[in-house]
Amino acid sequence: MKRILLLLMICIMPAISFAQKNDPVERMMRKMSVRDKVGQLFIINYGHYTPEGEIEQMIKK
Questions:
Q1: Cβ(38)–Cβ(59) under 8 Å?
Q2: What is the number of other CB atoms lying within 10 angstroms of the CB of residue 16?
Q3: R_g of the chain computed on alpha carbons
Q4: Please, are residues 29 and 37 in contact by the beta-carbon 8 Å criterion?
């Protein structure tokens, strides 16, 4: 029984790692800048964007 569990652990861990590496959303998020990520969360209207604005201050903290 222990051998079966050990074998399963050996096979499952690389499969989980492989699945995580090929996640397209994770790859997209890794390539995005912090400003873009915050913009995605808050849907910033860039027409009214100023460098001294509230969102920019949150990014700098």
A1: yes
A2: 9
A3: 20
A4: yes
Report pLDDT digits (tens) over 8-58: 777 777 767 666 666 777 777 778 777 777 766 666 555 566 667 666 676
- Could you give the C-alpha distances from 28 to 18, 36, 37, 55, in angstroms and in order? 17, 11, 10, 22
Tokens 């699945």 belong to residue: 19
- Residue 48's pLDDT is 60
Dump pLDDT digits (tens) for 35-46: 777 766 666 555
In the block, tokens 């912090």 appear at 34
**pTM for the full predicted model:** 0.28
